[in-house]
Amino acid sequence: MPKTYALDRQRFVYIGGAAGQRPKIPVDLARLEAIARERVSAEAWAYIAGGAGRERTVASNVDAFARWAIVPRMLRNVEERDISTTLLGRPIPAPFFLAPIGVLEMAHPEADLAVARAAGAMGVPFIFSNQASVPMETCAAAMGETPRFFQLYWSRSDELVAHFLHRAKASGCTGIVVTLDTTLLGWRTRDLDLAFLPFLRGMGIAQYTSDPVFQKIMDEPDPAPAARPRLTLEAIRTLIAANRRFPGSFWQNLRTGAGLKAVRTFVRIYSRPNITWQDLPFLRQHTDLPILLKGILHPDDARKALDYGVDGIYISNHGGRQVDGAISTIEALPAIASVVQGKVPILIDSGFRGGADVFKALALGATAVGIGRPYCYALAIAGQAGVEELLNNWMADFELTMALAGCKNVEEVRQTQLLERNP
Prior knowledge:
Blueprint: H1 5-18, H2 29-39, H3 42-49, H4 56-63, E1 68-69, E2 85-87, E3 90-92, E4 96-98, H5 111-122, E5 126-128, H6 136-141, E6 148-152, H7 158-170, E7 175-179, H8 189-194, H9 206-209, H10 212-218, H11 233-245, H12 250-256, H13 258-269, H14 280-286, E8 291-296, H15 299-307, E9 312-315, H16 329-340, E10 346-348, H17 355-363, E11 368-371, H18 373-404, H19 410-414, E12 419-420
Parallel strand pairs: 4-11, 5-6, 6-7, 7-8, 8-9, 9-10, 10-11
Antiparallel strand pairs: 1-12, 2-3
Helix pairs in contact: 1-18, 2-18, 5-18, 10-13, 11-12, 11-13, 15-16, 17-18
């Protein structure tokens, strides 16, 4: 990035303000969240912002950053600044990426495609969600040479898993991010209070409905047919929504019941709670892409992952959506970094809200940081342009934090010692 990137960003905003032009999205994260909440439905907000149980982990993810303090150093030459780094051997403009978020159509009609375009324009990596609203091939085509990854949920069909891996490679993905913490849906109180699960309306299953293996599974007999819901106006709306989202003609889908069949097939096969470490070699048999394990929180799991030869550790608690009361990710980072010792990259997400949080994570041993809900909020407010503006803001915020702390590049940030306050 240019040495005056952050200053240029500030200058652009202030000069625009002098001409009566405000930013497309708020810079302040609290306002960003508040405005995004106004732009989406109650069901969408519950799904995007909600967490498991009493949402203590959602809060802890954000609050735990206060445990570590940056101690700025003075009289260091930071005139020349560089926030770029590498991830799995690929250069990236800043030490962060766009984490996988499912059902983005609930935030904006262009969903994953708008995010992919923003990521491509900014050169920031994007992890395609397994629960996307747009197929990975369409998003990949919008990203040019920008690195992208595919998040894999290990379904009950190994044939489907293998084909997802094949599609990811064909889409130019840099690696496979295997999500380990969502073999079952957490107890998500906001969604349950609204009795709303988007997948039952055909939302967020585009990776499946665009896949020929999944379509083949749809034609197989259901070993345990679900009870048919009572015929109500809402049930009819749900049926119509599912058929509109299934590829092809709506009337053909309605006639054949394809949309409803796709939803039932998804519900039947998406989750496989019995996967173990012994299943990991299956992935190696079906892809030569780097494999990263997402959901690691315990140092012993990180150690075991290294024993199994994985290519990266991804610290995550799914944004607090799975286990209420789980450790925050920034708390988990130091012990895992001590185990990994730089052997593989460490990615981390959950609770990051700005450049200072990114700085702390790098100083504690992370390689790159995943932006989650904030980019979803920006998407809800201003689509692709909102996501691009958010990335511009994060780059400027991180660069200024880095320079004002006395570091001129990412490597110096990694060598910074934080002050740990009393837990």
